[in-house]
Amino acid sequence: MKLKDTMRENISGYIFIAPQIILFLVFLVYPIFEGIRLSLFKINYQSETFIGLANYGKLFADPIFVKSIINTLIFVVFIVALTVLFAMFVASAIFDKNAKYVSIIRGAYYIPVMVSMVVMSMIWSFLLNPANGLIPFLARKMEMSVNFLGDTNWVLPVIIFVTFATNVGQAIILYIASMIGVPKELFEAAEVDGASRIKVIFKIILPMVKPTTIYIIIMNIIAVLKIFVVIQLLTGGGPNNASTTMMYYLYNNAFKYNQLGIASAVGVIMFIITLLLSVPQLRAMLKKD
Q1: What angle separates helix 155-180 from helix 99-114, to the nearest 10 degrees?
Q2: Bond prior to 63 in cis (omega within 30° of 0)
Q3: Structural domains in the chain?
Q4: Nearest to residue 199, comparing CAs of 216, 180, 186?
Q5: Which residues contact 163 (CB under 8 A, 6 or more apart)?
Q6: Residue-wise over 61-82: b if at least 16 C-beta within 10 A, else e?
Q7: pLDDT tens profile 216-248
Q8: Residue-level pLDDT at 2
């Protein structure tokens, strides 16, 4: 009797989660395997021809694709590092201050996150326009003749800053929430011991918010690998492919050149890079001290 009741409970549980499992398999798992399959074919409108790993060979023989990998990794390293360090600095400086003050700071940094990335990119496009943008105008007033979006030396730092400034608010919110949750007894004990603010941050706060740090790193790695809107609206991959990323390269091959096999191969490589960058962070988060 107990066995029948247990089986009935298990079946009812599986029935409740079945819609989510089906959606997960159809919209997440299936596209991954279909992308891997398509990457092994040469595809046109009428047929598919199996060519094995030839698409991957073409990719790594293309200097533009190699450049897109380098640009993507540069974006990942600098944007993730800036986001974590700046968000940690701001949160550790204000989390224990007056609640109204903290709310104002959180709101100010989170406003760009709530605005569509398309809108933010358009605003930055107007500001950086070399003909009549505010930032180039101020640069000319300081006797600096710089085309921020047309100079290969400036375009990557500009995109890094725009992406960082737009998304850092979310990390600040997460860090503040995590730091507020640190037991007050630890701070009281540190105060009794005469620990300085710096020691409290490095010895108490940072170790206690480690799971939040790992989460922010993983989420930002995934987000930066998919960076597209900023590139499309600010530079279009230029100048001279200096700002082309893997996602933008994938988009061009899939929707401009109709090279679906090549685009699928880029997607598979991006998936592998995401795993390689994220798995160590996940292992660190799941590791028991």
Answers
A1: 140
A2: no
A3: 66-286 (1.10.3720.10)
A4: 186
A5: 75, 79, 224, 227, 230
A6: eeeebebbbebbbbbbebbbeb
A7: 988 898 889 888 889 998 888 888 888 999 999
A8: 57
State the average pLDDT over residues 5-29: 81
Contact (Cβ atoms closer than 8 angstroms) between residue 60 and residue 66: yes
285 in Cβ contact with 215 (< 8 Å) = yes
Lowest pLDDT segment from 2-6, 47-51, 255-259: 2-6
**Which residue bears the tokens 């620990």?**
195
**What is the three-state SS of the chain?**
CHHHHHHHHHHHHHHHHHHHHHHHHHHHHHHHHHHHHHCCEEECCCCEEECCCHHHHHHHHCHHHHHHHHHHHHHHHHHHHHHHHHHHHHHHHHCCCCHHHHHHHHHHHHHHHHCCHHHHHHHHHHHHCCCCCHHHHHHHHCCCCCCCCCCCCCHHHHHHHHHHHHHHHHHHHHHHHHHHCCCHHHHHHHHHCCCCHHHHHHHHHHHHCHHHHHHHHHHHHHHHHCCCHHHHHHCCCCCCCCCCCHHHHHHHHHHHCCCHHHHHHHHHHHHHHHHHHHHHHHHHHHCCC
Q: Are the C-beta atoms of 82 and 166 separated by less than 8 Å?
A: no
Place of tokens 């809107």: 229
Beta pairing partners, 49:
42
- Section 193-207 average pLDDT: 83
pTM: 0.86
What is the rounded CA–CA span in Å between residue 188 and residue 3? 53
What's the token pair of residue 64? 């533009």
